[in-house]
What does this fold into?
Amino acid sequence: MRRWPLWLAAALLTVGVLPAQAQAPAGSDQLPPAPVPVFPDDDGRRGVARPGQYLIELGTADPASLPPEAGRVVRPVGHGWYLLEGSPTGAPAAVAAALTASSGRQVVPNRVFRQTADEPFFPSQWGLENDGDIADIGPGTVDADVDAQRAWAVTSGRPAVVVAIIDSGLDLTHPEFSGQLWVNEDETPANGTDDDGNGYVDDLSGIDTVSGDADPTDLDGHGTFVAGIIGAAVDGAGISGLAPDVRLLIVRACSGLLCDESAVIEAIDYAVANGADVLNLSFGGESFGSGPLDIILAEAAAAGTVLVAAAGNGGFDGIGDDNDLIDMVPANHPDVVAVAATDRFDQLTDFSNYGATTVDLAAPGDDILSTERIASLFAGYAIGGGTSFAAPFTAAAAALALSAHPCLSPSEVAALLRDTTDPLPVLATRTISGGRLNAGSAAVAARDGAVAAAPVVGGAPLVVDFSLCHLLPAPAWDFGDGGASALRSPTHTYRTTGIYQATVSAGGIDYGPLEVVVGLDFVDIAGSVFAEDIYWLSAVGITRGCNPPSNDRFCPADGVTRGQMAAFLVRALGLGPGPADRFVDDDNSVFEDDIDRLAAAGVTRGCNPPTNDRFCPDDPVTRGQMAAFLVRALGLGPGPADRFVDDDGSVFEDDIDRRAAASVTKGCNPPTNDRFCPDDVVGRGQMAAFLHRALG
It folds into this structure.
């Protein structure tokens, strides 16, 4: 039987009580912040609203026309919206719906948004947000953190996502976990019966595989510490977990900082059988050959559970070891995301194990503030270090990713976590990813990957197929053109030209926007490398075609004249009128007004310096001239000198370098693209590409 020490064992010596000034002592005059009601929406997510206050959209209607039972109009708040007070009491979402129905106007709760986590100890939680001056801990490096607030802008988790903590249990009396636990709906509370027939009586939120009962109470403190990092409540007191709106399934499988394999296997089996999406495994040790745990881990991953484990805290010397040279279990299992520990300066800690081929990434794991047992010497909160505490940051990030995109497989979650890390030189050769966890980037990537549309560029009418992860709650699509749908994978037809932003809301998360470009359906651009640019050009109204009055062609290969270029730029930049008849040679040109506008804006000076009384509207535009026009029109700044090898003798060299620096041009000889061809005539297709890159 294998027994593994929890990774906190060596780090317990560094655990300390939070300094007294950071705690509000009992009986002091310091009052907690006024409570703000918390209410659930249809998906079970928690919202926060001011009691008895609502916002109503009146537009230009007279506020006095509202029935008295709707409440008192306090003041306008802008854009036709007004603040109501004294409205009926009840669940804010339900009251808002009733007021909407009775008034015929849209009414919503007066929600409360947090500028940052409103927990008193949040300034000490550098792992979430590091400003370089960490309260009660000391200095740090700015942004050496997991970007929690960026992640929370996407999601703080969904109750449907369950993280199982296989550890020493949880202090079930700790206020940070009130309402945070997974609930076994197949079990009737306190009836003394094994209602679901799983061998455990009254297992409401987890079990104890050490004692063989349904009471996962923590007797050591390690599991409570891990749980706080993942899911401590945002309740105006104490700390915040990285994923405060997921649910925690607790299994006590460790005692006295040791975990028997038998208890761990039973714990994992229980968690997976009860739908755990993520398993946090903050323990480990060197393997003495393969065992049943290896099989159980593989089966858990195959069942769709993300597995996260601590990389290890080195041997008896307290110095981190190379996991590539030793077989660490469970960290080295191929289905496990193994996590090393970094400090508040974004350095790998001395105690952390590492491995260029075995450790996936690192996460904050030293001087970490989290929850402790209420009955401990630390009275509910403590500071500790170890890869045990880096793993739960990563498990929480995985839970946030699954909240945004529940269709991700365990291997896809692992890849996403690795691919979105912040690269650190110290980790470049010591982890697979070479970086430290960025939960914000992971949440954004997961959200963006949960929704798709195709095609997103084309001519009107354009039929677009949209899709959303099928495991998300019922969606509400807004196609950006007035169209909407509640289908999970709708098809929508855009009938007029324009650029549309399609969005969808599901499970309290806003997805998108997905940009759809609908241009004119020219008959001569199929197969053109510039087709997407041409669609964009017509979608924003810069081009109408090349063969009036039918204008069903764009003529992408035709050269652009200076007069045509003037029209393109005037429409693109929205230039106003200029002095009439600026040049002597454009009186008979259909582009005379465009030319005068271009001159008034300082984009053109003429074609015959130094006199410059002529514009030469019928002359072709060269690539060098186009560079100058765009640099003046867009005010592009200096770029690296001598970007191309063929423009050294050109009067437009500086303009060309500026345009390259702004990514408006890539060159004229792909794939090398070391030439610009400044004297070549610009084709209409090329013009579309230049303008799209510059303005799109």
DSSP finds 14 helices and 32 strands in the chain.
